[in-house]
Amino acid sequence: RGGWSVGTSGVSDGVRNHREEHQNALNKIRLAAEDAARLSKMDKGDLLIQGIKQDGQKADDAEVPTHLWDGMWMRSRKEQGFGSMESWMGKPLDINKGEDHPRWRQALEVMRDKWLLQRWRRNVTKSFCDWFADSVMMGRRSHERPVVRWSEGRKVGDRVEPGYVWSFYGRGDYKRWWESLRQKRHCDIMESGREAIERATSATWWDWAGGSSLFFWRWPISHVRWAREGQPHFTTASLPNYKKPQRRAPSSETQELMNAKVNKVRWRRYICLGPVCSLTHMFSVPKGLHDIRMVYDGTKSGLNDCLFAPHFSLPVMAHTLRSLLKGYYGADLDVGEMFLNWWLGESLRPYAGVDVTHVRDGREQGRCWERWVRNFMGLKDSPFRSLQMMIMAKFIAYGDRTDESNPFRWEAVVLNLPGDPDYDPTLPWVMKVRKDGHLASEVYIYVDDGKFTGWNRLECWRAVQRFSKVLSWLGIQDAFRKRTGPSTEPGPWAGTVTHTENGVNATVTELKWAKTQEKVQEMAQMLEEDETALPRKALEKARGFLIYVGRTYRWMNPYLKGLHLTIDGWRPDRDEEGYRIKEKRNRGREIEDELRWKEEEEAFERGEREDPKKLEEGEEDQEAPETVRAAPRFRSDIDALLQLTAGEEPAIQRCRVEGSMTAVYLGGDASGKGFGAAMWDDEEVVYSAGSWNATHSQESSNWREATNLTLKVEELAAEGRLDGKELWIFTDNSTYESAFYKGYSKESSKLTGIIFRLRKVERDTGCILHVIHIAGTRMKEAGIDGLSRQDFVEGIMGGTNPWQYFPLNEDADSRSVGRVMKWVEMWWYDDEGEPWTAPRPKGDDDQEWRAFWSRGRGNRWESELLVKLDPGDWFRLQEIKGHRLWIPPPAAMETVMELFAEDHLVNPHLAHVFIVPRLMTHLWRRQLFRDADVHFYVYAGAPFWPRSMHEPLTVAIVFPLAHVPRYNGPWIVRDRPDTGSFVELLDAQYRRPVVNGRDEFLNMEGEMPRLQEDDHRWTWDLLRKFLHKQRAFPPVSCGISRGLLPGLRGESISGPEDVGRRRGGRGKRVRGGRGS
């Protein structure tokens, strides 16, 4: 059946115009994408432009591939229309015999070393002197009035000659200025500047030969102190007093390698002399056949146990897809000495001592104890602290998005979300688009590895170069030797190789694929030999490698679960199948198992599970056995991996379909004795229905639901209708959705087998499968539920537009016609219209505070504001001041979580509120709940979220976090003792109203009732009280105060209309309270 109307008749002019604008934007992007793909096929590059890291390019002594810069410079000249070099004086194209390359390249190298380097050093010195005079001395270089005057009769010894002499007040003014420079604060700043300038003078054009220090005076005012002294550490206990001497390496050869590694760090003054109260240890692990990797251990001394590191997420391959289309280019940039760029907090330096007795040169005299002054690998909070500053540098590199010379410029954010009638599966779901229709260039930071994208080779290179220049401008190292040129087939990034030559696809290198097969076959052989005594260390090594590969292939991670259960099954908190024994769930909690099924993988990626002391010989955890017993599901997982990794060529993971603009949708139900399924695209609906035979009708409802849908998918695959297509499967069975993304069902081996069949279809046909859980009431309303009862006249079956039943592209506020926003205002603001985050002077009672605060309502501070973020705001968070209110469509949440992770990392003092319908949760719920201090569900039936909304509303709150001196935690609201009981209370409160004896709202008809009335006070009163209670929690209180302090992103904003305004854009303030 078909024939439903997808036109714009019968809708308002505003809606019609919006849709026409959206269609025009998508058409413009498609035309630009075709142009990029065509030019990409014509541009095959040349020998000077290399896209993949060569063997040995990552070595410390590798040569810099200068041909990349020379080749792209020549490419840029040609595209700008400059003439040939034949007209130049001399013979620039002749080969220089000494350098074995054209003379024009030799000229570029001479210009870099002899002129540009000197100019850069001079600019660094001048910028510090100017900053010191203007910012530290407040514009007074030495005086406020002239200190000298010109005199024709100046006495010089016995002679008289013209020259400058002191003015009447000059000598005294100059003396007072000079003495002010000798203040301790000024001396410390000058010393820090002197060190940074000294390191700049020892740098070459391609290398920081003497190490680096941040040019702190060039950072934003909010980060100047952190760039000069390091961020403060979040401590949880008294710092240790550990003074056990460092042991020698087991062999003299290893000790020599350690000496070279450690002394390089010492000569660059990352380890320096200073007071030492506690020591840390170091040791080496093999790196290849003839090298080692140093491991600096902050765990053994107990230092890591005294630190708290906030959780943060890293981007993965899936996040980069939003800026890639067919024919787009990618390039890599590596940050040199990533952790060592950033200062260690001054308070922690005495407790990060290093015993250098065995690594010192024999000629060295003095103490054998030194200490770290920079972040080091092995310190618990080093990743958080380093990435916090690195992402800030990324925000600086973005620059002005409206500047036509900026390679990161963009004009608008275009959403192309499933569920929209104009959805195009060949395009990304969320896109930053330029004026010419091309996707904006983008950068993604994975620790020290940056990935860049651009629509053509030159635009990609310009983005890399801008970022590199900003790094050098801020004093951050760029490892030029690891640079790669733009390519449609770049090398691996975060473990994945992304190709755009023939569509957007992901794979791994041939070497990694062969090693994957080797690891899987090796584990299969172990099982055959003795499944009761598997070598644990070998399994751990295999797990680490396969987790890395699993970043590329989403079908692999589900089948690593048996490996996790086997490795950790010996622990006392595990059941007989290897699963962690969980406490009884609290009433009202519906946290799905997928929130934890990849806990080991995520911890490994961040390095938290690699306990350095376990690597050191003779210091392994004594509780861990040498061998472990295979978990029951380990064998079936290995069998699945053997099938999925078969084939000599690396598997291709299709990231986006191409060709047809049709996405296929499938919904099904198998309740009772019948079953039914409906499939539709933009042309027709095809449905089927039937009854189970006596045998199958006795199976569980989960099995029947899964079998019904999987049989239909296999039928479509056999007909070739899924080749290169995107298939959306909707089900009201949450177990089926959960099992699909986990790859298994703990309760049913039959269901696990059905899921494997789906993964095989995805692997064999190259299609992209999405399994989406929806509410049973929505399935009934759509008419799919009736198919199992032979009812063919309701919902979609009756000719209604299918897309209106699956609002993956609609946010909660638009669906509720603004009711959700009104509800948020009720608990964020008090009865007087003041936000709970509004600063309140200590010691003042409520009445005095309101009188004080109302005197200056013309100015508003960052900590007062709650800004509702629209799609156009998502990519300019660095410009928007105020706490964040996220109400995005469910289909956009994957991108939202990527952007939230960076914003929360850079600005932990800001609160975040998320309100999202519980749809497509596999893309965002696990990460959101890991970061949220409070999360709960509002079930349909509330005044602001009636029964016609079907799925519950997911609400999550992330509270402000800021450092508190002389405070040892807890640091986040989630860790407070009373937070768990409050969440239980919320879960009970926001259950279906009828459960608590309240009236239930069925639909959006009529006006929203006044929530201030006593009958509806329950919807917000509890939350408001909890928020106000958190003001007394020190990290939250300091986070709020941070929004007031000058220099900490807290300057006042003149007038509410300027909230978030910068360079022509502004965020939308929810409510300003009194005076707005």
Commentary on this structure:
42% of the residues are buried. The protein starts with 12 loop residues before the first helix and ends in a 7-residue tail after the last strand. 34% of the residues lie in helices and 14% in strands. Helix 3 runs antiparallel to helix 5 (184-201) and helix 11 runs antiparallel to helix 12 (536-550). The protein is an alpha+beta fold and 1076 residues long. The model is unreliable at 1-11, 583-622, 1045-1067 and 1071-1076 (pLDDT under 50).
Q: What overall form do the CA principal axes indicate? A: globular
Question: How many whole angstroms does the radius of gyration measure?
Answer: 32 Å
Percentage of residues in helical conformation: 25-40%
Query: How many DSSP-defined strands?
Result: 34
Can you describe this structure in just a few lines?
With 1076 residues, this protein is of the alpha+beta class.
Q: What characteristics describe this protein?
A:
5-stranded mixed β-sheet, 6-stranded mixed β-sheet, single chain, alpha+beta, 1076 residues, disordered C terminus
